[in-house]
């Protein structure tokens, strides 16, 4: 069974339905809840992929404002360097963009907040992160 590292950056943004789908697909999840004091692993060895979730923090926050993001950024840099299967959502996607040399900025129309329906498509069966265990 493949094990995914799931980085839960903030308690407001748990793995929820996505986590349920991943478990139903036969994956084992190693959830690290940063708000509860869980530590991130030193390496990605032993994991088949990684999911980094969101939170109310800003990707523009410095180390003093959001110290928990320092380790997440470093882990994402390692994942990019290793071409490691990674799914980053919301804040996680902004941090991934930064880790890859991209630019994140404040939205012109203010913050974007809201929940939308997310569904897994058949194409996910061939994706390194979402495909069923073989």
Automatic annotation (TrEMBL):
Gene3D superfamilies for this protein: 3.40.50.880
Keywords tagged on the record: Hydrolase
GO MF entry, a single one: hydrolase activity
Residue span, Glutamine amidotransferase domain: 44-110
One Pfam family here: GATase
Protein name: Gamma-glutamyl-gamma-aminobutyrate hydrolase family protein
Organism: Blastococcus brunescens
Lineage, top ranks: Bacteria, Bacillati, Actinomycetota, Actinomycetes, Geodermatophilales
């Amino acid at each position: 069974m493949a094990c995914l590292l799931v980085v839960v950056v903030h308690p407001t943004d748990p793995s929820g339905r996505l986590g349920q789908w991943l478990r139903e697909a036969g994956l084992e999840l190693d959830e690290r809840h940063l708000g509860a004091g869980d530590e991130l692993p030193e390496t990605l060895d032993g994991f088949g992929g990684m999911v980094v979730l969101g939170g109310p923090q800003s990707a523009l926050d410095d180390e003093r404002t959001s110290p928990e993001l320092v380790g997440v950024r470093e882990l994402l840099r390692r994942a990019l360097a290793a071409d490691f299967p990674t799914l980053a959502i919301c804040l996680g996607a902004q941090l991934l963009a930064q880790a890859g040399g991209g630019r994140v900025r404040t939205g012109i129309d203010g913050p974007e907040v809201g929940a939308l329906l997310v569904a897994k498509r058949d194409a996910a069966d061939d994706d390194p992160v979402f495909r069923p265990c073989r």
